[in-house]
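cron nightly-structures :: item 1 of 1
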Amino acid sequence: FPSHDSPTGPNNELITQSLAVPPQYPTFADSSSYAATSSYTKHNWGRWYSTDTHTASLINTAYPVTVNTVGGTFDGFYISGSNGSTVSGSVIVIPKTGTYDFQFSLQVYNTSGGGASSAVNIWLVVNGSAVPYSNTQVSVNANSPYVVAAWDFMGSYNSGDKLQLMWSTTHINNRIATLASASPAPETPSVIFTIMEL
């Protein structure tokens, strides 16, 4: 006779079931057996800064923003100057065709004069031509606290393209300033450039 725990049909006949054995968790090979593949794509990047204070001798005149120091290390990019230097200058040379994000930070200061109308313009130049609608104007009031201009430009470029950041001012007492260390803070660079391949 069937037990109370056994399933039965309408005529009390024993119903037998074929119970499938649940699958076990799959086993994985030891991770040490996986060989490194060559599918990884290296992304180029670079970082530089300036220890100089940048001034303008003429108002409403374009000046390139320059750097003179490698920020730790870089891979793929280099900065090109009039002397062909790979460390200092104003031109960032794109190493290979792709999409890049160029970020910068400028510490702007007005020593005196100019009033509320004193301003600095900052824009991007690619291969010697100003990029339309890339300018931003920041107000720099006389003897005001330091103004930090910092944003980024993202775009697709070809190998060998040359990027430059330019600036102009409506008052010659506006400058991009560097500061000596003041404990506990370290030195403050006037310019920081960072660019990375996406």
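cron nightly-structures :: done
The two ends are 74 Å apart (CA to CA).
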